[in-house]
Amino acid sequence: MVKGANVGLASLSEDVSSVVLSLAWCSATGDGDADVSVLLLDANGKVRSNADFFFYNNPAATDGSVQLLGKTPTAVGSEDRISLDLTAIPSGVERVVVAASRDENARFGDLDDLRITIADRTGEALLGFSITDAGVESAFLFGELYRRGGEWKFRAVGQGYETGLAGLATDFGIDVDDAPEEEPEEPAGGAGVESSAVVAGAPAESPVTVPAQSAAPEAATARPRRPRTAKKKVTLPKTAQKSLAENDAWRQARLFPASSLKNDREREMRATSVLLSVMAQVPEFGRRLTAAFGAPAGRMQTFTEVSLPHRDTPKRPDGVIRVERAGKLWTALMETKTNGNPLKPEQVQDYMDIAARRGYEAVITLSNDVALEGRPLVDVKIDGRRKHKVTLWHLSWAEVTHQAQMLIRHEGVGNAAHAWLLHELLHYLQHENSGCHGFQNMGPAWVPVRKGIEEETLCQGDPRAVEVAESWERLVRQVCLRLGGELGQKVLPIPRRGKRGTDPQARRVALADSFCENGRLNAEIHIDGTPGIMALVADLRTGKLRTSIEVPAPEQGYPLTWAKRLIRQLAEAPADLHIETLVQGEGGGPRATLERLRPEPGDILPKDGSQITGFRLSLVKSVGSARGNAESGFIRSVDDAMDRFYANVVTHLETRQARSSQPAEAATTG
To answer: How many CA atoms lie within 13 A of 639 on its CB side?
Structure first.
């Protein structure tokens, strides 16, 4: 579409009752990002109340009409997805505006490939609109959906705001509170769930506080103002309640015991039943998992071991999800695998055929594997003669764990009982017997490829190297999910653009060829709120794993002051931390260990007076040899290296002010 054009959604698809909007962008440095927001407007072009404003700290409407699904990596950057159930949009809403904003002094002109795409409930793209004229704007209206003659239409807007999110919000009737934010008080009481309610917002009519994006220079160091949500949320306490057990041999009673599981069949049945029961009882959790699959917001019921007729022999999918909305049913069949067992194509094909014949909407596969763009986990055949379309989706146990952690540890749920249910689910998923531990095996190609690297006999074009490149990408994505859930921050891999374009499979082939040549697997990860990009390099020729981050040099001050400040920040970092000075032009600067630099920080400065652009901090450890997640395994060594580097190095650095998921104190007492 071109700027200003409009189109009726009904003319593009037979079923547009639910749509998913994707806002995408990328940047040359990999750390460019923006946050989406949605506003529901009445006939006067204003929100009916502040509750009609949805953003990162108020991600979902209570009626399920709007839900921000979060970010997902793409071949060249990332995209932020929004689920809209158009049948649930209140009758008083005439327009749905979709926007995005950037923090602090960042501008949209610094991002590339700005684009909005709309897909129907099956995931099929209906239209797209690219923004090519972004400049100094810090907020942008990408597009809007509006009612016209009983149907929904989309208009490509492409309008920017130099005044940021605050200016955008004010234009549409949001009450903006410009008062500085005070430090939130720690919640009183013990560590029990009942006393751990976190006030995450004010009543719906309270002013919404938006982050300062164009503040005066003298206010640049103030704490960022955070938005408030419209209702109270409950999270689990950061510190566990003291145990009343006499000794460590006592085991707490669990709602979902896992210690007695004996075989894979029992694990699959138990895991499916546990997950589906919690999805049905905790609306925030169930909706978060199903909205990405095109399910409407409504009353959800879940079932296990349902027998469905199929040719001569009935089939029993592991689970069935049904959602009722306005008298209509949305149904998905679920096939579950645990303990690293692969999905069986013939089994999934049977469920696709059953779903098509019975008018169901989706088949969901759930396993330890992580899906990749352009690389289906299971190849199925779709009968094009059938009018009813069934969509195949994949969900990994790592994603399930990530969403549970985000809700109970950072964003909150509706009440303490729901928080406890999610806590029990998370405990079950992380139990060693559950089999729901995510991607845990580098695959059959790992051992021969590693041997070929060591013997220098692996040639470019070897398909086994491509398999290892795919496994590496799955591992990196899982690391991002795990860290994101634990930290409550956006953690995304940064795909590199290569000479072969942006096609995902071509990118993997290029990575495999580079791997064959130098024996190294590379990845870059962006963690929101950190001062730079974290790099991860597994060198199989030397058997070393390097984690590093590049910290830019301050814009003001003297090099010796920079060096002293950096060493002070790293007072508790490991002594074997490598520090390298980055200088302008070709060639590197001085390098040394932190142990050597502590008494003499000036030793890291170049003797020839070269201009310093930053510092690279690195930790090196041995790479595990086995392909799995055992104590000596490669996957375990990657997890341990990332955890050690983040906890012992990155957390001590001066960072950009990270946006917290917990807002300012929204109510006062007395």
So the answer is: 21
Q: What is the predicted pLDDT for the residue at 80?
A: 87
Residue spans of the chain under pLDDT 50: 179-206, 209-230, 499-500, 656-670
For residue 425, which amino acid is it? L
Q: Which of 588, 453, 591 is nearest to 516 (CA)?
A: 453
| CA-closest candidate to residue 537, choices 482, 578, 582 | 578
| The predicted structure's pLDDT at residue 569 | 93
**Distance separating alpha carbons of residues 286 and 364, to the nearest angstrom:** 14
Q: Which helix (H) or strand (E) holds 118?
A: strand 112-120
Question: What element of type H or E holds 643?
Answer: helix 634-648
Give long-range contacts, CB 8 A cutoff, 24+ apart: 346-353: 348/378, 348/380, 348/392, 349/380, 349/381, 350/310, 350/315, 351/315, 351/317, 352/380, 352/382, 352/390, 352/392, 353/310, 353/383
Residue 202 has a pLDDT of 33
Q: Is the four-CA dihedral 558, 561, 567, 570 of positive or negative sign?
A: negative
Both tokens of 51, joined, read 């509750």
- For residue 562, which of 604, 530, 528, 596 has the smallest C-alpha distance? 604
Count Cβ atoms below 10 Å from residue 238 Cβ, excluding itself.
Answer: 10
pLDDT at 620: 95
- Residue whose C-alpha is closest to residue 101's, from 146, 147, 54, 133: 54
Confidence at residue 663, expressed as pLDDT on a 0 to 100 scale: 33
CA dihedral 336, 340, 341, 342 (to 10 degrees): 90
What is the predicted pLDDT for the residue at 351? 95
CB atoms near residue 600 (< 10 Å): 11
3-state SS class at 447? helix
- Residues 585 and 238: their CA atoms lie apart, in Å, by 46
